[in-house]
């Protein structure tokens, strides 16, 4: 008779979408992965209801697929934008969600009647890539997530690093130009103000002003406000000159930010997760070249810079991993 | 009968001076601390001779002071500018010394006939502050040394962090203005290009051009090329307006660099070592204010920014500590 498999549910809460799924304890596969819109504008209580709904769907689907019972689920790992407090499970501030001091973990746990843990979304994505993605076995790892914002995570010797007050890894809010663009965080010249999704779109719109030929405008039916980072990557793949320049500039900004991380940390790997990885070599090649220009050679030589291997599920896989780590003490 | 005390010698090799001394294993006191000029221009072999000479003086003086024997010395910890390779004991490149691939550790060890270890000087200074200085018991620590260059060290959970290829902690070579001042490392806009000793002096000279009243010129007998960071701090203490502005600007640049470190690492403490600490509150108060403006509040609230407590000996104390750690496996 085989030992019964047990499962952990992972939830990746984003400003746009909630992604969730289940994994067996050994992380060998993703089950019942699904995505629903977050609909933040409907308020925190409604977002919790949506999280609970997707968790119940994941549970039902997993039970059906594996024949397991509800008691076979150990609990729920939640990744959320934050600063947040892991001990109390409270999201201290999440700009994209409009939340302040919201007790997310316990709201979810009490409604699904399962244990839950809370950690930062970018940290979860990094840990996901470490557990089951592009960074398996990497000793010293920096992860970056590029999306609406730029987040990050740090793994030292197999341990996810949280810092003195649980906010370590805010790599998007490192200054690359101390008198530069205003950032949402209130500071000037943060990497996020140059290389986040919205910043990429904004730079594309700026580049279009007064420029001759570009397919970017056509791609959004003439409404440049609809340009996103994805539009830019797509146009770049189709050899559009304006889009290609925006991608090269993005590589340059990211290269400056990543060079800082490499000179400070001397990591074995920088793994970049999120939609930006769709840009492929058009982004990664000039990015690696910029890092090689800027950072110390022994540190550059020791570090691989790679796209994440779990573009859709790193956050969920990492949320499962953080729950497992916190509950069982090991991966 | 008391157990015989044993001793470790520490050497802090700098571009200007060599500092050395001995400590008993428990680090309870500094013995026979002394400084001699490095005289780098005389060549690597001569510098090694000078290191050997100062070590022999430290040994002789310690034997005289404590009544111990030569066999009571466990060995020599050496802190050197670098990138360097701790395993082979080779200094890969030290700009201020003009060295490339120099086997410093074994050259010294073979001549004094003692075991030796080699580590980065700024890392040693950080570890010295952690072992016996301003950062005792601090869990997550960033150290910065401000001198001819800007170096750094990282302590996680009581362990000095070295990174993937032994070059972690190059906090002076993080970009605070990606299109800014040229740095000695070849890059643009590094923190070191704004806030190192020579950069502070250079900014003071720039400020004097066309400026009316300042005691800075008098202090160097009219020869502004003789202005150093120390001149600036001294003039600032005497309320000189130009010097005070230079110190405030230094605080602003350091504040941007330290904010990056705080947002990435969320450390419990940033300890700043080196001559710059002579500037006192005139530097540290605007520096803390700049960090408060720039970095995330939960990270700022968790982090003390303090001057080192071992301004003259942190590097030696840390070199002793790294030898002890490597040889005995614990502090």
Kindly describe this structure.
The structure is a homodimer of 331-residue chains. Chain A is α/β, with parallel strands linked by helices and 331 residues long. Chain A folds into 2 domains: 138 residues, Nucleotidyltransferase, domain 5 (2-Layer Sandwich), CATH 3.30.420.40; 170 residues, ATPase, nucleotide binding domain (Nucleotidyltransferase, domain 5, 2-Layer Sandwich). The first copy, chain A, is 40% helix and 22% strand. Chain A is built from 11 helices and 13 strands. In chain A, strands 3-2-1-4-8 form a 5-stranded mixed beta sheet, sandwiched between helices. A 5-stranded mixed beta sheet of chain A has the order 11-10-9-12-13, with helices on both faces. In chain A, a hairpin with a 3-residue loop joins strand 9 and strand 10. In chain A, helix 3 packs across helix 11, helix 5 packs antiparallel against helix 8 and helix 8 packs across helix 9. The longest helix of chain A is centred in the C-terminal third of the chain and has 25 residues. Chain A is globular and about 60 Å long. The mean pLDDT of chain A is 93. Chains A and B meet through strand 10, helix 8 and helix 10 of A and strand 10, helix 8 and helix 10 of B.
> Which homologous superfamily in CATH is the superfamily of the largest domain in chain A?
ATPase, nucleotide binding domain
Order of helices and strands of chain A: EEEHEEEEHEHEEEHHHHHEHHEH
The CATH topology of the largest domain in chain A comes to Nucleotidyltransferase, domain 5
Shape of chain A: globular
User: First CA to last CA of chain A: what distance?
Assistant: 25 Å
Label the CATH architecture of the largest domain in chain A: 2-Layer Sandwich
- Give the CATH level 1 class of the largest domain in chain A: Alpha Beta
Q: What amount of the residues of chain A lies in strands?
A: 15-25%
Number of domains of chain A: 2
Oligomer status: homodimer
How many beta strands in the DSSP annotation of chain A?
A: 13
């Amino acid at each position: 008779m085989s030992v019964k498999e047990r499962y952990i549910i992972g939830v990746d809460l984003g400003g746009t979408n909630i992604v969730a799924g289940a994994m067996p304890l050994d992380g060998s596969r993703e089950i019942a992965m699904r995505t629903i819109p977050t609909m933040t504008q409907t308020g925190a209580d409604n977002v919790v209801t949506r999280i609970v709904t997707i968790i119940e769907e994941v549970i039902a689907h997993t039970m059906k697929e594996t024949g397991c019972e509800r008691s076979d689920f150990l609990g729920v790992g939640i990744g959320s934008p934050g600063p947040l407090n892991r001990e109390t499970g409270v999201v201290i501030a999440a700009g994209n969600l409009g939340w302040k001091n919201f007790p997310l973990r316990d709201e979810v746990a009490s409604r699904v009647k399962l244990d839950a843990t809370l950690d930062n979304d970018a940290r979860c994505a990094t840990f996901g890539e470490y557990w089951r993605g592009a960074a398996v076995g990497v000793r010293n790892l920096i992860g970056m997530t590029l999306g609406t914002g730029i987040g990050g995570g740090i793994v030292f010797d197999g341990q996810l690093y949280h810092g003195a007050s649980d906010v370590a890894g805010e790599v998007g809010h490192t200054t690359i130009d101390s008198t530069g663009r205003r950032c949402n965080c209130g500071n000037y010249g943060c990497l996020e103000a140059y290389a986040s999704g919205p910043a990429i779109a904004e730079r594309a719109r700026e580049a279009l002003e007064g420029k001759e030929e570009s397919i970017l405008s056509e791609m959004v039916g003439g409404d440049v406000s609809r340009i996103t980072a994805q539009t830019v990557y797509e146009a770049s793949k189709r050899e559009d000159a304006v889009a290609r320049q925006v991608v090269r500039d993005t590589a340059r900004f990211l290269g400056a930010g990543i060079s800082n991380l490499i000179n400070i940390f001397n990591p074995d790997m920088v793994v970049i997760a999120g939609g930006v990885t769709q840009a492929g070599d058009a982004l990664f090649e000039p990015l690696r070249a910029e890092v090689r220009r800027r950072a110390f050679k022994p540190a550059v030589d020791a570090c691989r810079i790679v796209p994440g291997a779990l573009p859709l599920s790193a956050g969920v896989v990492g949320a499962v991993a953080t729950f497992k780590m916190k509950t069982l003490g090991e991966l």
